[in-house]
Amino acid sequence: MNCGAFQDRKVLITGGLGFIGSNLARRLVDQGAEVTLVDSLLPPCGGNLFNIRGLENRLRVEVLDIRQALQQGVLASDVDYVFNLAGLSSHLDSMTDPAMDLDINCAAQLSLLEAARQTSPDAKIVFASTRQIYGKPDHLPVDEDHPIRPIDVNGIHKAAGESYHLLYHRVYGLRAVALRLTNTYGPRMRVKDARQTFLGVWIGQVLQGRPFELWGGEQLRDFTYVDDVVDALMLAAVEPAVDGGAFNLSGEPVVSLRGLADLLVEASGGSYEVCAFPPERRLIDIGDYYADDRRFRALTGWTPNVPLVAGLERTLGYYRDELANYL
Amino acid sequence: MNCGAFQDRKVLITGGLGFIGSNLARRLVDQGAEVTLVDSLLPPCGGNLFNIRGLENRLRVEVLDIRQALQQGVLASDVDYVFNLAGLSSHLDSMTDPAMDLDINCAAQLSLLEAARQTSPDAKIVFASTRQIYGKPDHLPVDEDHPIRPIDVNGIHKAAGESYHLLYHRVYGLRAVALRLTNTYGPRMRVKDARQTFLGVWIGQVLQGRPFELWGGEQLRDFTYVDDVVDALMLAAVEPAVDGGAFNLSGEPVVSLRGLADLLVEASGGSYEVCAFPPERRLIDIGDYYADDRRFRALTGWTPNVPLVAGLERTLGYYRDELANYL
């Protein structure tokens, strides 16, 4: 989208050196926004300075965690938009270090919202939530009325983080909205391990000439290409009708993990091995998932434009050139 | 209940100097349990040393917060039962100091569960959850399948705290169960302010000869007398069929706040003033609530034995003698 809405507007992106944040930053800078990125560059998060290569002189970067950045005044009264993308997304890490997940996905979020209501009550805040809060679906596709029943520590904390945003909207009038992302993929995603999605590590493996591991394979999933997520974030930012709501994003087509593996191998020339599901992951696996995102489409006109095969090709194209910067 | 199940068993009660914890401690000591209480005695919590008057030599008390107490080894491998009642319950405090609510209702809970899975994987853990996690009911009575949609910070954090317990059951096999309490009342409740329930402050006021304030008045509520809650906690502790579940408790009869105010005035001889609902509370008010607790009754045989009028009389009787120790 390019409606001029971001021209000369002050934008703060938390987690801005990460996968989605850096893709969003590129788009906003191109549209004339005055962009500040905050990113802790903590190793388990997705931040990577390479993600903003070429943009260095067109935006401001604060390598700080959110609370330090708030103390430095990044959330001044003239901030127009906050894209609140900072967070941990690894389900397994959240089980081995729940206190760290709590600190980043809850404590830091509360600090941000408290600062917002005190210093920037007019800013629009777009929060990156996750399908993980639903837990194991009762029915498919999952719409926003599906029970919130997370099955790992990360899901519990992301659910709390989303709830804070909706609460601060209702009680304090903050203009906040949450997008419940499904698997997002594309250039600048983390590929050195499975902390963002298993698809990242698959791509990293095939491009290093190694077979990737498919665990199980029958689970159904949906995927959104990062440019489509960036569109959605920007539409959510400018559309008042979504304020106070939480909305699914999805993408087409729904595919089994085995189907995805086959598509990837077809596009990359690599190969994969089928493995049993690791027991520590099986316990927190959500089974099949795909989302009904009609509410968000209806309110904003959003529609994903990059189908899975094209998105995989673009992603592989990026990493063929840049893989060394992501390992 | 007295089935001998607690004779010589090692029991840890967090929040043990508080309202429910101290009533439970009395019962367990009488049944021959070896009881340790942990309580931070933080001012906004319900802890009060007077609550264990006469018991001082029959149990152990650690005036520490949970994490300090864990470092002192209170959760040794031979603990049989943990009644995990420590927590903040004030909705309004959670809005003015969300970080404190997060620390006590989430961070400390995670510490306890991490310690339990590492040092006491066989202990049974009974967690005091709350109806507050449901938010504004969609339908009445509220059963356990009702959506979890908390509308204040306290509700968000208590929902997370409950989810941790159920997760640690599912993933690590901890024998944990959550009881979603509604308004609990009785001797040893906090009466100097409304941090535990509005009924506490009403009782404190009428016994000081001052009219209490009724805000609104039409909201429906249910109440459980503390001895019935103690029964429920002990049944939950000994009944394996409830492990991994979360269960409502209720009580009879359902009554409007005005109806309750009239009952209290009839029993106490006091008076009340009808006031408009304060705006900062209206925003986080849940409206009408009463619970369907048939699942817990069916699995444990629990039934509340003290109806509201009798419970109010007993409570007033206690505070007529002891009010000075609670102001």
- Given the C-alpha coordinates, what overall shape of chain A results? globular
The oligomeric state of the chains shown is homodimer
Span of the ends, CA to CA of chain A: 32 Å
CATH topology of chain A: Rossmann fold
Task: Please give the count of helices of chain A.
Answer: 11
Could you tell me which chain pair has the largest interface and how many residues each side has? Answer: A-B, 28 and 28 residues
Tell me the CATH architecture of chain A: 3-Layer(aba) Sandwich
CATH class of chain A: Alpha Beta
Question: In sequence order, what are the helices and strands of chain A, one letter per element?
Answer: EHEEHEHHEHEEHEEEHEEHEHHH
Average pLDDT of chain A: 95
Structural class of chain A: alpha/beta
Helix content of chain A: 25-40%
CATH superfamily membership of chain A, which one?
NAD(P)-binding Rossmann-like Domain
β-strand percent of chain A reads: 15-25%
Explain how this protein is built.
The structure is a homodimer of 327-residue chains. Chain A has 327 residues and is α/β, with parallel strands linked by helices. Chain A has a single domain, classed as NAD(P)-binding Rossmann-like Domain (Rossmann fold, 3-Layer(aba) Sandwich). In chain A, 39% of the residues lie in helices and 17% in strands. The first copy, chain A, has helices spanning 19-30, 66-71, 91-96, 98-119, 153-172, 198-207, 226-238, 257-268, 279-282, 294-300, 308-322, and strands spanning 10-14, 34-39, 60-63, 81-84, 124-130, 175-181, 183-185, 212-215, 220-221, 223-225, 246-248, 255-256, 272-275. In chain A, the strands form 4 sheets. In chain A, strands 3-2-1-4-5-6-11 form a 7-stranded parallel β-sheet, with helices on both faces. In chain A, strands 7-10 form a two-stranded parallel sheet. In chain A, helix 1 (19-30) links the parallel strand 1 and strand 2. At the A-B interface, helix 4 and helix 5 of A face helix 4 and helix 5 of B.
